[in-house]
Amino acid sequence: MNTNNKYSPYWILNPLTNNITIKTYGEWSFFLPKEVIEGQSPLSKLGEEFFRMAHNMVSLYDHNLWIFSNKEFDYNNCYRFSRVLKAVSETFCNSYLSKPEVIIEFDNGSITKQLASPKYYETIANENITDEKLTRVLNITEKIYERNLVEYLAIFEYLREIKKSSLFISELALWSFVEQHWKGEMKSNNELAESLKRLRAKVYERKDPAYLEFREKLKIFTERTEGKKENLSDMRNLLAHGTFFKQKENWDNSQWKLFSEIHEFLFNMVLLGLEEEIK
Is residue 156 part of a domain? Predict the structure, then answer.
């Protein structure tokens, strides 16, 4: 393999909807399907053919996003970089990122453009990619790659699997991650509560209204399902012992809504905590 070849990767993200308004960010550029088809992307006139071929592989939603890196990599670093982006983006988003394809500039000056291969992922979760979410993904990706933070790559690959797991398994794994990752030095009668407190301190003021609302929802939900509202570990224990799974057939819409809101808030708080650690 010629190490002088330069690889500029690109990917397709296939969310149900997106509200992306930015066209560039740092060394990234973004294109909607119409723009790719019209030849406005780095694929130029091949855009229409590549879009059609990708659409035939998996029905692309109307709001799919084509993401191009304007950096040039060698072969190995191109795919190392893409591994990080895939882990981070699929942790933040409810849709798969395609495997990387590349625009290759050979050392003789010739250029080859390869077709991206999107993957279908069926999800019941709503998806709306925003400028804020997209830039967070890209910032984290660049920091993990540039500083070779392999431990955080492993964390995001783990969280990606948590996100795509069934809700009860996902919730149990998430609480376990919080307890382990933000564990302190001192012993405690309620290690999970202490870990949550340390996570909260990274991203929220102690009396932040959003966090207080989250804690109140935890108490209400745990109490409704035979737990002790003052014992946070009961949330994890009720999950681990299958109590929620056994009760779920009798849950009404308000209980499902409360459980989902708790899960989403905790997951987002974990992401905020990790961002604080690696920024």
Answer: no
**How many residues in the chain?**
279
Whether 45 and 119 share a structural domain: yes
Residue with tokens 């990708």: 54
How do residues 200-243 score in pLDDT, each as one tens digit? 999 999 899 999 999 999 888 877 776 554 455 667 777 887 77
Hey, what are 23's tokens? 């066209």
Establish if 159 belongs to a structural domain.
no
3-state secondary structure (DSSP) of residue 102: strand
Q: Where are the alpha helices (DSSP H) in 66-121?
A: 75-92
**What backbone torsions phi and psi does residue 270 show, to the nearest 5 degrees?**
-60, -45
Work out whether the CA dihedral 242, 197, 270, 148 comes out positive or negative: negative
Predicted TM-score (pTM) of this structure: 0.89
Q: Is residue 155 part of a domain?
A: no
Instruction: Give the range of the structural domain holding residue 231, as residue numbers without chain letter.
Output: 165-278
Tell me how far apart the alpha carbons of residues 143 and 156 are, in angstroms, rounded to a whole number.
13
* 140 and 13 housed in the same domain: yes
Classify strands 17-18 and 128-129 as parallel, antiparallel or unpaired: parallel
